[in-house]
Amino acid sequence: MKKRYFIIVVLLLFHFAACKNFLETTPMDALSPENYYETEAQLRSALAGVYDRMGRPQTFGDQMLGRMGLEGDEGYYARSSARVGVAVYSTEPSDARIANNWEHWYEGINRANFLLANADKVEMNETELAAIKGEALFLRAFYHLILVSNWGAVPLMLEPIRSADQTVAPRVPAREVYEQILADMKQAEGMVKSISDIGHGGRVSKSAVRGVLARVCLYMAGEPINDSSKYAEARAWAKKVIDPAPEDGFQHDLNPSYQQVFINMCQDRYDIKESIWEVEFYGNSADAFQENGRVGSNNGIAYSGEDEAYGYSYGFLQITGRLWHLYEDAASLLSSDERREWAIAPYRITGTPAVEIPFTVAQIYERTSGKWRRELELVEPKNKNAGPINFPLLRFSDVLLMFAEADNMVNQTPSSEAIEAVNRVRRRAYGKYLPQESVRMVQVTNGGTGYTSAPTVTILGGDGTGATGKAFVNANGAVTRVKIIEEGMNYTTPPLIVLTGGGGSGAEAVALLSKRQTSNPDLTDDQTATQESFQELIENERARELCFETLRKHDLIRWGKFMINMKRIENDFINGDSPVPRASSGTAYGVLSFQNASPRDMLWPFSPREMALNRGLTPQNPGW
Fold first, then answer.
1. Quick one: 41 and 188 in the same domain?
2. Quick one: which of 59, 86, 361, 386 is 20 to 30 A from 604 by CA?
3. Whole-number Å distance between alpha carbons of 293 and 339
4. Residue 503 belongs to some domain of the structure
C-alpha cells in the first residue's frame, strides 16, 4: 500500500530549504545545507520535502480542488454567498489563495534546488542516487509548469537561494521557461525508475515524465506560445507511454471500469496501469501524521450531516448544464455513457442518518462532482476536512486523448491510430471492456421488520467477484434500499444477496445484473470526417473523461476557447434553451463565475507582497 516513509516530511530538519517567502532565506533552525546532506536517509527526507508541496492546503491538498476556478466551463463554485474571490473570477492581486499557491510552488523549487546542489555529496548506490536526482529535477520542472501556465512569464529558478540579499529574480519570457521545463524533464526521463520498479503511482516514474512531457508540448503548441512544431513532440512522448520499448517501459492500459479508477483512489489502492501519477494523502489527522487532504471533502457529493458512514463534504463544485449535455442520453436519468453517473453525482445526501435522494433531470445545475465519494473511505473515523483519498495528476486515458489530439494536428487529418486511441477511451466508457456482467442494482423485495441499524450486505455466488453493497433502514425498522458500492465483474448469473445483523429479520433482496452495452461507442464517420470535427470531438471527450481533474481551464486556454466557452455558459444560465436549459432560481447565482470571467483571468496576478519581496516581478500581468 502507500509508502508512508516516503511522504513523511521532516519539516524541522528541512526548514533551511523551505523559505516562508520566495526570497526570504534566513535559516529557521541551526541546521545548514552544508552539514545536512550526509546520509542516504537525509537525502530521501529532502526529496520527501520536495514532494510535500503538492499536498499542502495551498495546492492540491485543498485550494486547487474547486476553490480556484480551474474547472473552467465544467462547473461552478457552489456558494451563493461567495461574491468575490478567484473561485468566481472576481478578485484582486492581493488574493491570498493566489499568493499562497505561488509561494508554495517556489518553496518546492527551492527545496529541489538545494537537493540537486548537494546530492552528490552522499555516498550511495549510483542508480538510486540518479533516481532521486531525476525525481527532484522533474518536480522542479513540474512546479515551474504550474507557475508558467498560471502566471505567464515568471522567474526561472535553477539554483538555491542562499542569501537574503537576493532580492531580484526577473521574470523570464514564458517560452524560455517552457524550454527549460522540457530540458529538465527530458534529462529526468533517463534517470527515474519505471513505474513497475516503483510499484505505485505516488512517485515520479518514466511513464509520468513521458506523459507530462506530452502535456507540456501541447501547452506550448497552443495559445499563447503557439509553437505548432511541439505537436510532433507531444505525439512522440504520448506514444512512448502507450507503446513503450520492452526494455524501458511498462504496458499501461485502461481499467475495465471507469468508476473503479476512483474507487481505488478513495480506498488507497494503486492501479498503475491506469493511474500513472497521483498526489498521495494518508490518514484522517487523528495522530501526528499530517499528510491528509480534502479530496472528496471539497469536490465530492455534498453532505453536511453527521452520518459517520458518509463523511462531511462541502460539495464546492456543481456542474454546468453544458457538461451534463456532453454525455449521451442527456434527457434521461440513465446514460449509455457510464461515466456520467459516476463523474456527476446522481443523488444528493441529507439528514442523520443519511438519506440519498435521486436528482431529477430538471435538477442538472444542483448536481455536484461525484468522482471522489467519501463514503468509500476505509479510514475511520472520518474527519470533516482531512481524508486519505489520492488525487490524479496523470491517467492513461489522458495520455490516449493527448496522443490523438497531437496526431491529428501533425497529420492534419484523423489517422486510424488516433481514432483507435479515442475509441479505447469511449469503449471503456460504454462498458465494452467489462468481462461478463457486473451487479448494477439490488431490488429490495421484502423490507423485513425490527431493524435498529443497517444490516450487513453479503453478495455470494453468480460466478463473479468483487461486488459489495450497503443497506439503508427507515424509521420504521425496515430495509428500504441496498446500494451497490462496487459492481464487481465476471457474473454469469445473479448472485445471492444476504442481509445479516442490524437487530431485525425478514429482509430480502435480489440482484440485477448489468447488460454489457450493445450500442457501438466507436466514433462515427461524421465525427472523424475532418481535422476540425475530430478536434472538437476530442475537446468534448476530454471533458467527459477528465472533468474536475484541474485540467479544463488550461485546455480551454491553449485551444483559444476560454472566453468563448465561459460566455456560452453565462448564456446558458440566463437564457438557456434546448438542449441546454437555463439554471433554476435556486442556482442562478452560479452565473457569477461566467459573468465575471474576462481575458485577464487567463493569467493570475502577482501579489503586492511578492512584488515587494522580489523587485523583478514587473510589470504586473495585463488587466490587473
1. yes
2. 386
3. 24
4. yes
Q: Is the model's pLDDT at 5 over the cut of 80?
A: no
- How far CA 149 is from CA of 144, 216, 311, in Å, comes to 8, 10, 34
Chosen domain end from 513, 533, 550: 513
CA atoms of 510 and 496, how far apart (whole Å): 7
Q: Within a 10 A sphere around the Cβ of 267, how many other Cβ atoms? A: 16
- Is residue 385, in this structure, part of any structural domain at all? no
pLDDT digits (tens, 9 = 90+) for 491-536: 989 999 999 999 999 999 999 887 655 578 999 999 999 999 999 9
Q: Which amino acid is at 408?
A: N
CB 284 within 8 A of CB 383: yes
3-class secondary structure, 197: helix
| Owner of C-alpha cell 501526528 | 288
For residue 447, what are the domain limits? 439-513
Please compute the mean of the pLDDT values over residues 341-370 and round it to a whole number: 92
CATH number reported for the structural domain that contains residue 602 in this entry = 1.25.40.390
Are 69 and 176 members of one domain?
A: yes
Beta bridge partners, 470, equal 483
For 550, residues 6+ apart whose C-beta sits below 8 A from its C-beta are: 60, 64, 65, 70, 71
Element at 508 (helix H, strand E) = strand 508-513
What backbone torsions phi and psi does residue 77 show, to the nearest 5 degrees? -75, 115
Which of 513, 530, 552 is the endpoint of a domain? Answer: 513
Across the range 241-254, mean pLDDT stands at 90
Q: Is 356 helix (H, G, I), strand (E, B) or coil?
A: strand
**CA 280 – CA 620 distance, rounded (Å):** 34
Residue type, 347: Y
Is the domain of 467 the same as that of 608?
no
Q: How would DSSP label each residue in 527-584? A: TTSSHHHHHHHHHHHHHHHHTTSS-HHHHHHHTT-HHHHHHHHHHHHHH--SSSPPPP
Return the amino acid letter for 150.
N
Predicted confidence (pLDDT) per residue in 517-527, tens digit: 557 899 999 99
Would you say residue 406 has pLDDT above 90?
A: yes
DSSP 369: B
Q: Domains in the chain: how many in total?
A: 2
Same domain, 461 and 607: no
The answer to the question of residue 481 being in a domain is yes
In a domain, 88, yes or no: yes
DSSP state of 82: -
